[in-house]
Design goal:
Length: 237
Amino acid sequence: MNKHKFKRILLKVSGEALMGDLPFGLDLKTVKAICENIKHVHEQDYELCLVVGGGNIFRGVSVAAEGMERASADYMGMLATVINALSLQNCLESMGVPTRVQSAIPMTTICEPYARRRAVRHMEKKRIVIFAGGTGSPFFTTDTTATLRAIEMNCDAVFKGTGVDGVYSEDPRKNPNATRYDHLSYKEVITKDLKVMDTSAITMARDNHIPIVVFSIKEPDAFSRVAAGEGKYTIIS
């Protein structure tokens, strides 16, 4: 039973989630497991779109700190998200799931340019749309992209798949005594400086009344269970 009554969902997948236990790059077993998670939700008649990060391939901020101009570093990070989007598309389509990749930076040879109305139409036809290229502009994170695309697509919620089963007061992998939250308000996330998403993403979600659901993308079938209101997760609303 879909306790949340969500119909159209945007899933944010971080680049780090795709590298598994590798130091960088793509771990194909991990990519396949995530795609199986996504396929199960798609089969339950949800309309889905994805925003994927690029941190497993290129992290703009760290390179900028070493002397590269921030804008150039961010553009390189956006290109990394296209690589990840194509890997997810390839894996999903090998499972029989129809997908479309749309990039905010036009690359017509390999994917569609971002077009809001076309993306909505794809989802109505039960295709999964994978948004790549960030917002198309530097200085914006893929978290902000996720909230922005969710608003544009009229999504009912943003689901953020992470390495842990919700939001904690501290990183539970570093502090096993960290407090886990089942529910938070947007204001609490900002005032407590919880590192869930950047402040601009949280603020946009608050202003447009879009809940954010944080869960572990690493757990088998976690996405479909959390979409139905089951399992462990934190909801921000």
